[in-house]
Amino acid sequence: MQLVCPAGNLPALLAAIEAGADAVYVGFRDQTNARAFPGLNFDEQEIRDGIAYAHARGRKVYLALNTYPDSARLEQWFRAVDHAADLGADAIIVAEMAVLDYACRQHPHMARHLSVQGSATTAAALRYAYERFGIARAVLPRVLSLQQVQRLCQTAPVPLEVFAFGSLCIMVEGRCQLSSYVTGKSPNRHGVCSPANFVRWEELPDNNRSVRLNGVLIDQFGADEPAGYPTVCKGRYQVGEEIFHALEEPTSLNTLELLPQLAQAGVVALKVEGRQRGVAYVRTVARVWREAIDRHAGSAQDWRPYERWQQALAAHAEGQQTTLGPYHRAWH
Question: Is residue 281 part of a domain?
């Protein structure tokens, strides 16, 4: 199985390649990608240097063009497709059908991967994208059970990639409305949940802190309590007489123990989430998964998830905790 790792900047790309990633996925410094945070992503020279570095070592670079443009801005996404082809990207990761159609017609030899933002959860949806736009791979949304992934591997017309580790989204990707409800800016169109210009931190008595998104109180933290980047889905709210994570706790998906089942099902690539994360996260997670995949390939029958692997991953997990998420559903 291929290990696909995030790279939000050039140092992260170098770290991922050095740690054993088979491919990295990156974004331009604009709203064509779903991690359009200020200070993140690649300028022209950085992306050329990164692609050259990866290719010199036999690794691949995928360009994420995975947001949904409105009709007035389609040309910007089309130019991004052209630019990806000019740079020699090994594939583009796309959700919007007009962008897929343009890439299929104008750059038929550049591989097209259907983004997780495309929300393709059925064989029929995957077949449509394959027959209409010639996709070479599809990234499955993080809402499917292991049994559903296994069935799709049997029936899908294209190879499938799944998220193996990283921040977990409770929504069907590409359809979340929470951030746009609070800020008026859709993460699917503007490239980011909780745009930074809407985020306001406030110091409270006793070194406590609060954070608001467009004036809406999202969470409050104690002096020694770790605070992550604020998103609506992972805030704490008052429901009745209780205050708790009403939608989702801060946690990371970790499918390491499922690696044998995913390999047996025929999953071709394991993806690590986290282009917004730092170099230490990328390096550690890539090293763990590289070793785990290689050990499984060498001796599948004797493979087991070592505790030191799990400890290393947990240290970089959101909220210092991990979950199997929808993969671990008893019902089919």
Answer: yes
Neighbours of 218 (CB within 10 A): 21
**Spatial CB neighbours of 30, under 8 Å, sequence gap ≥ 6:** 36, 41, 76, 80, 191
Sole residue written with tokens 């909220």? 319
Instruction: Domain count for the chain, please give it.
Output: 2
pLDDT at position 223 is 86
The whole-number pLDDT of residue 247 equals: 87
The predicted structure's pLDDT at residue 332: 53
Same domain, residue pair 48 and 119:
yes
Write the CATH number for 143.
Answer: 3.20.20.70
Q: Which helix (H) or strand (E) holds 309?
A: helix 307-315
Please give the DSSP secondary-structure letter assigned to residue 185: -
From 244, 267, 289, give the residue that closes a domain.
244
**CA 311 vs CA 106, 191, 314, 323: distances in Å:** 46, 32, 5, 13
- Examine the domain organization and report whether 232 and 266 are in the same domain: no
Does residue 80 contact residue 32 with C-beta atoms inside 8 Å? yes
Measure the CA–CA gap between 172 and 188, rounded to whole angstroms.
Answer: 12
**Same domain, yes or no: 273 and 299:** yes
The answer to whether position 176 is within a domain reads no
Q: Contact, 60 vs 23, CB < 8 A?
A: yes
Tell me the sheet residues that pair with 323.
253
Strands 111-114 and 237-239: unpaired
- 10-residue averages of pLDDT along the chain (332 residues): 98 98 97 92 97 98 95 96 98 97 98 96 97 98 92 97 89 79 87 89 91 94 86 92 89 94 97 95 98 96 95 88 80 54
DSSP reduced 3-state for 172: coil
CA distance 253 to 273: 9
Q: Which residues form the domain of 112?
A: 2-168+251-327
| pTM, two decimal places | 0.94
Task: Label the pairing between strands 137-139 and 242-244.
Answer: unpaired
| Alpha carbon 127 to chain centroid, angstroms | 23
